[in-house]
Design a protein that fits this description.
This protein has helices spanning about 5-30, 50-65, 70-90, 95-110, 135-155, 160-180, 185-205, 210-230, 240-245, 250-265, 275-280, 285-310, 315-335, and strands at about 30-35, 45, 120, 130. The chain is mainly alpha-helical. This is Undecaprenyl/decaprenyl-phosphate alpha-N-acetylglucosaminyl 1-phosphate transferase.
Length: about 350
Amino acid sequence: MKSLIAPFVVAFIISLVLTPIAIKLAPKLGFMDIPKDKRRVHKKAMPLAGGVAMYLATIISILYFLEVDRKIVGLLLGATIIVISGLIDDRKGLSPKMKIVFQLLAGISLIAGGVRISFFTNPFSFGNTIIYLAFLSIPVTLFWIVGITNTVNLIDGLDGLAAGVSMICAISLMTIAYKFGYGDIAVIAAILAGACFGFLPFNFNPAKIFMGDTGALFLGFVLSYISVEGVMKSAAALTIFVPVLILGVPVFDTAFAMVRRKLSGKSMVQADKGHLHHRLLDLGLSQRQTVLVLYIISIIFGILANLVSDFNSKVGLVISILIVAAILLIGVMTGMFRSKEE
């Protein structure tokens, strides 16, 4: 684990140094978030270039600590495509369809580099039979990458929320990747966590800068890569449930939002104020308290995922199903599937 400290620290320092520069350059380059609707929590214009600082911190650290192979090239190319789309969206705006096009291109770059979900373990069988996806591998991989990329973007609604939750998820993924012998993936996770940590002093409430879609989409994209290469490649782990648990806060909040919007007759991509952080604010919690509560929940998810990964598949499956069922029950009881207007 000592070998992971240096990548974390280097990425942290680079992000810590570059973020103040981004704060100064953002207004000059026109990257400002100006609140235009009631859904926004902040009330004044804010710099939006924080994602670039985390992107550069991550890319520079990866190039320094790891040998460049096909998968790394695919990751760097895909991350760059995502960041370009985020910059365009933060500066001028992109339609949902164009965002998906960019995300698919980024996903294809990963697949071209050899990154894909090619199999999963069948926990119902004796001996943990491996089920190979064959021709379904590419669409399943693209679905996962695009899905996780967008979940982080959807929780980016409060100061420090997306960066902090992404950092916790990266650390949880890092521990599992390291445990199963995926050292390079653990290094990338440590680097991403360090980049988030270096950004947080300027993004935690009261924030001096936002990460924008550039940062949120970038974090989601790299987390999707780490989850595929560091967790789903392990036949010993419950390849679907473990990463879902680790990414529980953004994944379940997004799932609740999509079902909620569908049931209320709205488009599933239409923004609303029904996210978990909005509901915690409505209960009277401050921004800081809400973010800290979600940090704690994310940590609990990470601990549960690490525990589940140590069980045999059948025991892990039962525990995972019970956890998911409990989350869905809590979602129903707290009204997460109902719009706030109902």
